[in-house]
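User: I'm writing a tutorial on reading structure tokens. Could you give me a worked example: one chain, its sequence, then its tokens, then a sentence or two explaining what the tokens reveal?
Assistant: Sure. Here is the example chain.
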Amino acid sequence: MRPGAAVRAALSSLILICALSAGGCASLGATSAASPAADSHRTLAAILDEPGLAGTRWGMMAMTLDGQVLVDIRAEDRFSPASNTKIFTTAAAFALLQDLEAPDPMDGTSVRLEARGEGRAPDAVLMGAGDPALGDGPDCVTDCLAALGDATAARTTRVGDVIGDDRLYPDERRGPGWAWEDMQQGFGTAVSALTVNDNIVVLQVSPVQTAGAPVQAAWRAGDDLLPLVNTAVTVAVGETDLRVERRPGEDVVRLYGQMPTAGDAVALRVGLDDPALTAALRFRRLLEARGVTVEGTVRARHRPLELSDDPARAGSLPPVDPPDGVEAARLARPPLLASLNRTARFSQNLHAELLLRRLGRLDGTGARAGGLAQVEAVMAIAGLERTAFDLYDGSGLSAYNRISPRATTTFLVWTSRQPWGEAWRATLPVAGQAGTLLRRFAGTPLEGRVFAKTGSLNGVNALAGFLTAASGRTVAFSIYANDRPSTADPALDTMDRALLTLAAAH
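And here are its predicted structure tokens:
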């Protein structure tokens, strides 16, 4: 594969480094050992100060694993890390949870039959266990909602209400600082202890042959859980531009936009507002398909957030709400490692938030604040100054999150010295090969040599992790672009060029 513009620009920058260096470069791609670090620093600062990105605030730090600082550009300033936040959430799981490759010892999703009175069928209560992997698709093999349906149907032929119960965790469906418009997207779906199919439904859309006619839009089989209003049209020529709208407090999904007659079918992922309720709707269908009569309604049970969910309230007692009824079925929770891989490698927000609440169950009630307390404790052990960061969620969707490049890079170096550090690093995206870095650095000297977490929000790009420099040394780095104007060039090419230059110079 031929090097792209970013690579050519990086090589040009390397030539500049060679010109500035007292000893020059022995060959293109590696600098002389005599190259002053200050020259590399100035060159990188110039790359990040390009006119096309005017107004963007940059921060960068890089150091070797023995603590030698290679680059320090506004490393003490605080930046929005976006999904770099998952670095701290997933590392805390490796630090605090045991046997990540073994079945999770926490109780799994279950069904309880609650008596309603003599002569009346019991309610079927689907009890959420915070399991991120529970599925309801035709290709589900393990951890399947259908297995709970089979076991329940073997115990009874009649039930009253079907109830989705997610009271294991308090009802905190979204974090502080989450954008309201993200709630309708798959990446911004609600968080719940009762999660099925990643708490999304899929809308399948295709054009028709008549310009001006509505597009064909239908929910994927089994996903017809929300009302749909389709106002999108087919056009003779033009680009596909389809959007979904689900207003706060409403379940109705409106599809609008356009598709050309020759356009390809697309699948749109739509987030849910009440995952426990939609899980109960799915479970009712499974029971009825197995011959179980449902005599009542479908509803959800939630647990309101209380002072006792706040770890800062020393002495408060967690809510005590033992389950009622008789257990009819239970699933074992799968190992957490698969979810950790998905969280880091593909930046899965819901899994990150469920992981945060799983950490919150170690000493507390499964609240978001309890999970953050655990993460912050690990960050303190790593030597991070508390003033260097503020975290409000586990995924990075919060616009309130802040951290300094120095804090992130220091934390990365610390992870490399932990017994679990290598296993944790293996969950990160790989340049040009896997995850959210699949299409970045391909065909460059850094393909397969960067293991790093990406991050993206409105006006924000981030990348932090490890790279193998031309010298063979491993370098921990973090680079943040914040406050990028909407009219500015994309920041990713500049970011990648800076890292190519860093790797070549060291």
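What the tokens reveal: The CA atoms of residues 65 and 413 lie 6 Å apart. The chain has a mean pLDDT of 91.
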